Amino acid sequence: MIKASALSENPQRQSLVDQLTQVEKQISLDSATFQPEFPALQKLQEQRRNLIDLISRDTQKLVGNATVPQFQSSIQKTLSQQLIDSLNQIQILEIRTQALSQANAAIDRKMRQFPEIKRRSGDLQAQLEIAQNTLKQLQLKRESLRLESAQKRCLGG
Question: pLDDT tens-digit profile of 24-58?
């Protein structure tokens, strides 16, 4: 447990975890909008991998430097290492869960906009049809007036 508290109290490691949280949130938000091949999304994925590697290395460094009683057996040391690894994974999974929840909420907000967009599109389509019909009628009237004017010139001229 000494090692586990050393992990949670280390400011450098906590800073890395905070950075990972921000990157995970941005990945979730961008994933809702962009395809996986999008360059900015790929860069964020790379940042996430780097941060996870840094957190893992930092964890190993802290575990190696933590004070461990000399009487601890190899089984106890192995179990302590497994506990620390599990705590590290839990923290990373909690970050991902939080980021995915936020992305899910963003997608839900966008999905709720679709009916309004569809209704607006239908309204605009109807307005376009009316405008096109009016244009056709005006063009026909113009042509009719041209013919009438030409006939009057021929008859009167």
Answer: 888 888 887 888 888 988 999 899 889 888 888 88
d(CA 103, CA 27): 9
Give the whole-angstrom CA distance, residue 46 versus residue 124: 43
- Contact between residue 23 and residue 48 where contact means Cβ atoms under 8 Å apart: yes
Domain boundaries, the chain: 2-113
Cα dihedral across residues 39, 19, 68, 73: positive or negative: negative
The maximal CA–CA distance of the chain, rounded, in angstroms, is 124
Residue 7 near residue 84 (C-beta atoms within 8 A): yes
On the CB side of 1, CA atoms within 13 Å amount to 0
